[in-house]
Amino acid sequence: MWQFDPGTNDNDTKRKRKKDRVVLFERECAEHLKAYLDTREDTIPFVFVNFKSTGQMFPRTIQLEFDCYTKRLGVHISTHTLRHTFAAHLARKGMPFACIQVLLWHNGQHQTQLYAVYIIKQ
C-alpha cells in the first residue's frame, strides 16, 4: 500500500517483488497530490482508484489505458516507456548511472546499461 506524507518529499510504497520503494518528487507535486486527495470523498487508501471509485486501480487497467493512448496517438507508449524517459532525463542531466540504477531499483548494472543504449540513441 502507498503511504503519502505531505510533509516530506519521499513516500513509501510496496510493489514489485514486495520490495520497499521510495517515490521521490518535488514539493509542488506533493501539493497537487494533497489537493487531489482532499477532493476525494472516499476512504480508499490508494492514490489510483478504479473508475467506480470502489477500490484500487490495478496495473492491468493502467496498461489498457496506455494501449488506448497508443492507438489514438499512433505512437507506442507504456508505463515502461515512462521509466525509460525518466532514466533518459536523469542521464541527460548528467546523473551517474550508479545513481540511476538505485532510483530504478535495478539489481545490477546490466539492467541500467540497457537503458543507456536507449539514451544514446536519442
Automatic annotation (TrEMBL):
Matching entries from InterPro entries are given as: DNA_brk_join_enz (IPR011010), Integrase-like_cat_sf (IPR013762), Integrase_catalytic (IPR002104)
Keywords, in A-Z order = DNA recombination
Pinpoint the Tyr recombinase domain residues. Answer: 1-122
Q: Which GO terms describe its molecular function?
A: DNA binding
Superkingdom of origin: Bacteria
BP-aspect Gene Ontology terms: DNA integration; DNA recombination
A Pfam family for this UniProt protein?
Answer: Phage_integrase
Q: Which Gene3D superfamilies match?
A: Intergrase catalytic core (1.10.443.10)
Which named protein is this?
A: Integrase/recombinase XerD
Origin species: Cytobacillus oceanisediminis
